[in-house]
Write a structure and sequence with these properties.
The chain has an eight-stranded parallel beta sheet, sandwiched between helices. Strand 5, helix 9 and strand 6 form a beta-alpha-beta unit. The longest helix has 27 residues. By secondary structure, the protein is α/β, with parallel strands linked by helices. About 45% of the residues are buried.
């Protein structure tokens, strides 16, 4: 019938006024204006559908430090992202807003960073093994700092979720998403985790730190509401981690990078592998992306780069297949972006990964 169409009136009443107000004063084709929000968007927190919580925190990174400044590098890089996303061209209309990390927590981090560096240096020099009692108070201070930051982050996630927002975290090192899983556990959510990373992050402790970036999924898997952990692009792991996977009775499934590549070299295509990955996930999914899951040419300054890894488009394709599968994405994080001495490239790539994750939710 000519001129006839159907519209979801509830959707129209909620979203269209917001979009019309935004478009009256905003040109998505123009360069980002000075003082605008992430991706140059003009929306307020109330108008935004997606909230990004920055977590400026890295106390256990022992190779290349700098992920504490990752959120700032991604924010700066976002100003160079054209808003017409290839797969989700109207994504900008949903509204994306970046929260603030409290100054007092950043100050606490900066006070504790030299303490953690002293511990790591002592381990590397063999002093911590000789005189472990000398470092007990220092380990306790680091753990207390984590607990304080975690308490704030759980409250912040709860606040935005209760406001009806979709929430993503932007680290920082990979220790930072634990409160998101604690929040979901407290809510009784049953879900699986899609974990893209160069590392398994399944160590019970690393260098003595309970909340190490290398222990995030050891800690997450203590939560019995997490039905399955599916890891992709893994190419660096220890014997303890491999044994934990083998003894998990299928609760942890790993798609090792080398195995994926071997299969592709022998004729299996990436779509088939992605579909196998998605088939192992339950209907509700949390997505955790360590930027070093990508080939290190895309993230050279990340904390622990490893040869191999996914191309950007391979990651984007996998994430799109998750969305196309109809699975419900409960939340996400992007961690380990580090600007290094010149953070434009790493921040640029990180901003695009983050934008794509926003499209997925």
């Amino acid at each position: 019938m000519a001129g006839f169409f159907v519209i979801d009136i509830e959707y129209f009443l909620y979203f269209c006024p917001k979009y019309m107000n935004m478009e009256k004063s905003f040109d998505p084709n123009a360069a980002a204006a000075l003082g605008s929000g992430i991706y140059g968007l003009p929306c307020t927190a109330e108008e935004a559908e997606i909230i990004i919580i920055p977590v400026e925190w890295e106390l256990t990174t022992s190779y290349n430090r700098g992920t504490v400044d990752g959120p700032g590098a991604v924010f700066d890089g976002s100003m160079q992202v054209d808003l017409c996303h290839h797969d989700y061209p109207d994504l900008w209309r949903r509204g994306i807003w970046m929260d603030e990390f409290p100054q007092e927590l950043r100050k606490l981090h900066d006070e504790l960073a030299p303490v953690s560096e002293e511990i790591i240096e002592a381990i590397e020099n063999g002093e911590a093994d000789e005189f472990p009692w000398k470092y007990e108070a220092k380990y306790k201070a680091i753990e207390d700092g984590f607990e304080k930051m975690f308490a704030w982050l759980r409250e912040r996630i709860s606040y935005w979720k209760s406001s009806g927002k979709k929430v993503g975290l932007l680290g920082g090192d990979h220790s930072t998403p634990l409160p998101y899983h604690q929040y979901l556990n407290n809510k009784g959510e049953k879900y699986g985790v899609l974990h893209i990373d160069a590392h398994s992050d399944l160590r019970e402790r690393f260098e003595g730190f309970k909340y190490s970036h290398a222990s995030i999924f050891y800690n997450v898997m203590k939560l019995d509401n997490v039905e399955r952990l599916v890891q992709v692009a893994i190419r660096d792991y220890c014997h303890q981690e491999k044994q934990l996977v083998q003894g998990s009775n299928g609760r942890i499934k790993v798609f090792y990078d080398r195995d994926n590549r071997r299969r592709m070299y022998e004729g299996v295509n990436w779509k088939q592998i992605c579909d196998e990955i998605i088939e192992t996930l339950p209907e509700k999914v949390y997505i955790s992306v360590d930027i070093d899951g990508l080939d290190p040419k895309l993230c050279p300054n990340t904390g622990t780069p490893v040869p191999g890894g996914m191309e950007y488009e391979e990651m984007a394709y996998l994430l799109n297949r998750v969305k196309a599968s109809g699975k419900e994405v409960l939340g996400f994080d992007l961690c380990e972006v580090s600007p290094g001495e010149n953070g434009e490239w790493d921040g640029n790539v990180g901003a695009r990964v983050l934008y794509h994750l926003c499209g997925i939710v």
